[in-house]
Specification:
This protein has 316 residues and is mainly alpha-helical. The protein has 11 helices and 4 strands. The chain has helices at 3-17, 26-41, 48-76, 79-91, 96-111, 115-122, 135-182, 194-221, 226-236, 245-256, 285-306; strands spanning 260-261, 264-266, 269-271, 275-276. The strands form 2 sheets. Strands 1-4 form a two-stranded antiparallel sheet. It has a two-stranded antiparallel ribbon with strand order 2-3. α2 (26-41) runs antiparallel to α3, α7 (135-182) packs antiparallel against α10 (245-256) and α8 (194-221) runs antiparallel to α9 (226-236). The longest helix is centred in the middle third of the chain and has 48 residues, at 135-182. The relative contact order is 0.14.
Length: 316
């Protein structure tokens, strides 16, 4: 089975199963590895930036090494087992179903007019304080989360799967996990997490920039305002502290005709963020359904575009 077919099966499994909570998911194992190596590396008598970099290197070495060993061992068991191992590894790198499910649960609470429950559910997928968000604030937070995670959970893993197979896709997940654990601008991680944060920025640089135009294409196919999506993408794609996050958010904001970004509260502190989009209408619960549909079409389109650049057998 070639790499394209393996990726297609993995996407289908993600759509069918999502992230089974009882399975030993590799991201959880990588997270435990990060914590253990952080404890060890912080004891080194070196600058925190250097110790953080050593930690990042060790996590990548272990993650990549284990992935390669698993695939090589599977080869010895035969072609079917090797293909199965590759599919399982790739499957764990995608997160579309869970992303859509979390967003749908927020939409469900809003539809039931239960703002308190909607705040609780959106808090599970965003980093900001949600206790005082109004109805529109909950919707905007949910849309932003889906838009940003189109890259982290969908297009970036797909990109690395196509150019480097299961090994590259799993290494990307390790980078993304380290950023989510170490990439904070606080006293503990400002220096220790610098390498992890910069590496995540570098890993997402190209996938984020490819995702924006794909969202525009998806908007066209779904009958959304693709012209506004392209215009806002071109204008606001750098309107974020992260060099990558606004690319997908800008295209989504234009497609849906809503305004994202703006002041948000994190740990009790108001953080002023640039607005993204023109905001021709207030964000409504139906926009959550619309962004979920965009995410599905984006994955399909990105898969077909990825087939054009696949490197047969590489990373297997």
């Amino acid at each position: 089975m070639n790499l394209t077919a393996l990726i297609a099966v993995a996407i289908f499994l993600d759509w069918l199963l999502g992230d089974p909570p009882t399975w030993p998911h590799p991201v959880k194992l990588i997270g435990r590895l990060c914590r253990r190596l952080e404890e060890i590396c912080r004891k080194l008598p070196l600058d925190p930036v250097i110790t953080g970099g050593i930690c990042v290197g060790l996590v990548l070495l272990v993650t990549g090494g284990v992935t390669v060993l698993l695939l090589r061992a599977a080869v010895l068991a035969g072609g079917f087992v090797h293909g199965l191992a590759a599919v399982v590894i790739l499957f764990t790198c995608f997160a579309l179903r869970d992303l859509l499910r979390h967003a749908f649960l927020v939409h469900e609470a809003l539809t039931a007019q239960d703002l308190g429950l909607a705040r609780q559910r959106v808090a599970m997928i965003v980093g900001r304080d949600t206790a005082n968000l109004d109805r529109e604030g909950v919707v905007r937070a949910c849309i932003e989360s889906v838009a940003e995670n189109m890259v982290d959970g969908v297009t970036a893993p797909l990109f690395y799967a196509f150019v480097g197979g299961p090994v590259a896709a799993m290494l990307y997940k390790a980078v993304n996990t380290m950023d989510s654990m170490f990439g904070y601008r606080n006293e503990r991680y400002e220096r220790f997490g610098k390498v992890a944060a910069r590496l995540d920025d570098a890993a997402n640089f190209l996938p984020a920039r490819l995702t924006g135009p794909v969202i525009v294409a998806a908007a066209f196919l779904l009958g959304k305002d693709w012209r506004a999506a392209w215009r806002i993408f071109g204008r606001d794609r750098l309107s974020h502290k992260s060099p990558n996050s606004a690319h997908s958010e800008a295209a989504v904001a234009g497609a849906l005709g809503v305004r994202l970004g703006g002041p948000s509260v994190y740990f009790g502190v108001v953080v002023d963020k640039p607005y993204i989009g023109d905001g021709g209408k207030p964000a409504e619960p139906g926009d959550i359904v619309a962004v979920n549909r965009l995410a599905v079409v984006v994955m399909v389109l990105f898969f077909f575009f990825g087939m054009l650049v696949v490197v047969p057998g590489f990373g297997l």
